Amino acid sequence: MGSLGCCLLLGLALLGPRAAAARKCDLQGLWRNELGSNMTLWALDAAGTFSGSYHTAVAATNKQILVSPLQGAQQHPSAKGQPTFGFTVQWLFADSTTAFVGQCFVDHRGKETLETTWLLREEVPSRRDSWKATRVGTSIFTRIK
Question: 3-class SS at 12?
C-alpha cells in the first residue's frame, strides 16, 4: 500500500468516530421499543411540533388494539444535537391517555435511540378511585427507518 493509501486510511479512522458522534438526532421516522410497539413520527414544523401514530404491542384491555394518534413538540435542538421532546398519545381503543417525555441520543456509531419516561392516565368512575388511575414506566425506542 502506498503512502497516499496509508494516509487515506488513517484519515478515515480518525474522522469516522467523530463524524458519527457529531451526527444530530432526527425524530422523524419509524421507531420500535423493547416491547415491540411501533411509532411513526412525521416531520417537525418550524416551531418544533410534530404528529404521528403509535401502535402499541401491549394493552390492559380486551378491546382490539388500534393505531392511535400522537401530538408532540421537540425542544429547539442543542449544539450537541440530542434534543429533548414530549408527546401525548390519545388511545382510540381505551379510555386513557399517555404522556411521554424523553431525549434523543446518538451513540459513537451513529445509532439513534429515544429514551422516554411515560405516564398513562386511565379514566376511573370517581375521585375515590383516582389512586389507581396512573401508571408510570420507561421505554427505549430504536430507529427502524
Answer: helix
d(CA 65, CA 55): 8
**In the chain, % of residues over pLDDT 90:** 69
Residue that is written with C-alpha cell 431525549 in the block: 103
Q: What is the pTM of this model?
A: 0.82
Q: Collapsing DSSP states into helix, strand and coil, what is residue 31?
A: strand
Task: Give the chain's mean pLDDT.
Answer: 87
DSSP string, 56-115: -S--SSSSPP--EEEEEEEPPPPTTS--EEEEEEE-SSSSEEEEEEEEEEE-TT--EEEE
Per-residue pLDDT tens for 116-137? 999 999 999 999 999 999 999 9
The amino acid occupying position 40 is T
Q: What residues are paired with 38 via a beta bridge?
A: 32, 55
Answer for the pair 28, 44: CB distance below 8 angstroms, yes or no. yes
Helix (H, G, I), strand (E, B), or coil: what is residue 11?
helix
For the beta carbon of residue 71, count every other beta carbon within 10 angstroms: 13
Buried b (16+ CB within 10 A) or exposed e, 52-67: bbbebeeeeeeeebee
